[in-house]
Amino acid sequence: MTQSKIFKEEFEKFYSNIEKFYQLTIQRFEPEDIHNLRVTIKRLRAFFYLIKAINLDFKLEKNFKPARKLFKNAGKIRDIQVQIDLASIWQTEIEAEFNTYLDVLAKKEANAKAEFLAFTEKFNLKKIACKAKNVSKVLKKVSLKKTEKRTYKYLVQMFNNIIQSGDITNLNSEALHYLRILTKEFRYNLEFIAICLPQLTFPGTLIVELQKVHQILGLINDHNVAHHFFANIPIEQSSGHKLEPVYQKIEKQKLILHEDFIAQWIEFKRLFPDASFFIFKHK
Predict the structure, then answer these.
(1) Rounded to the nearest 10 degrees, how much is the dihedral formed by the CA atoms of 158, 160, 165, 166?
(2) Is the pLDDT of residue 235 over 60?
(3) Which of 42, 98, 171, 254 is the most buried (most CB within 10 A)?
(4) Which domain holds residue 156?
(5) What is the average pLDDT score of the chain?
(6) Residue 171: DSSP 8-state
(7) DSSP code per residue over 29-60
(8) Each residue of 55-87: pLDDT tens digit?
């Protein structure tokens, strides 16, 4: 099977999953369905970045635009549902009355669902499906040898960018968020490569260690969002309730998670100090 067909088949798998979780989200708005929908779109974005690296003629922004709209609108619900889950945990761990906060989140969630349904009435999912021909078209123009060379160069650049972005002396919330995006995209691309270009090998532990890093970063991001949500609760709603312990819980947990991340990040760089782990194995 040609490289263009292999990549096209991968794209069609992405679309099939997007369609599946899109329909499930509309039907029941379960957090897991919305999460899976957004993760699949993130994987598609990483996939498109890889195609762009292989052939610069690929119009990444134009091809990803419909999926980006869907991702953004589903994200409004996802952020709130994550905060509801966190709040439910905190309510059992600390002595604080914050039903008002949960009420605020419930109203936000209801509004976000209504907005999403309004969005779906105008959104055409087939605008994502039709991008398959563009994927196949640009890859037909590139030989296997060039595909391998450009993929290797792109992955090494990604890895080096991750290492440089993870400067522990300058890791504010924006830097951590960016590093989270990079590590996820790198991991997704490695998983594509294992299928599309298996001759480019790397240690299996690399994906495991990357996942450990971006999972901690994901928790940090959830708590940063919680901080933002709390900061935007009207004073008249929060002052009559004992919300201060909840706020303190968020700040304390952020510090713990940051320490966990530093330890995990130091270990990652010890295991993978450079990109020499990439090896081509030709028959």
Answers:
(1) 120
(2) no
(3) 98
(4) 3-280
(5) 88
(6) -
(7) --HHHHHHHHHHHHHHHHHHHHHHHH-TTS-H
(8) 999 999 999 999 999 999 999 999 999 988 888
Say if residue 13's pLDDT is above 80. Answer: yes
- What residues contact residue 82 under an 8 Å CB cut-off, 6+ apart? 31, 222, 225
SS3 101: helix
Q: What is the CATH number of the domain that holds 95?
A: 1.40.20.10
Chain length of the chain? 283
Q: In this structure, which amino acid lies at residue 7?
A: F
| Number of compact structural domains in the chain | 1
CA distances from 105 to 60, 76, 110, 230 (A): 35, 12, 9, 10
B/e letters for 77-88, b = 16+ CB within 10 Å, e = fewer, are: bbbbbbbeebbe
Rg, Å, the chain Cα set: 21
Mean pLDDT of 239-252: 71
